[in-house]
């Protein structure tokens, strides 16, 4: 079965998934953030088949998330290091970790984000870079951007209508 490509969609979520939407890709990026960059080490960490790891690494290099660097000539060996685009994925991984800890870690948190100055566990939140205000559903809403196509505009309009109905319902239910 042929996989659908999202590369031509004007949706930033779809285009992001085109690059990292396969679970092995996200786990490879997680390991690269942890400093695991060599093929054999990635394979051991992930328990992934070599042919699958080769395909995922090639795709991440082609997407500009990782750079393939030679670290040994005899035999030729490579490591896969994060590019600036790959490093920019860190907040997504931190958000996935925090969400996973809140929603699925019934046995307790297996990974935590720690403030290296205070030593305290950090609970990440998304904030507006300009104001520092936490992103909140009641204050912030999605709108179609200048490059949105008709599908995206229709999707966002449906979202706006849904939010308006929710607000109207909550206004009539409050005393």
Automatic annotation (TrEMBL):
Domain HTH hxlR-type: 11-108
Key words of the record: DNA-binding, Transcription, Transcription regulation
Gene3D superfamilies: Winged helix-like DNA-binding domain superfamily/Winged helix DNA-binding domain
Stored Pfam families: HxlR
SUPFAM superfamilies on file: Winged helix' DNA-binding domain
A GO molecular-function annotation: DNA binding
InterPro entries xrefs: HTH_HxlR (IPR002577), WH-like_DNA-bd_sf (IPR036388), WH_DNA-bd_sf (IPR036390)
Name of the featured protein: Transcriptional regulator
Organism: Dyella monticola
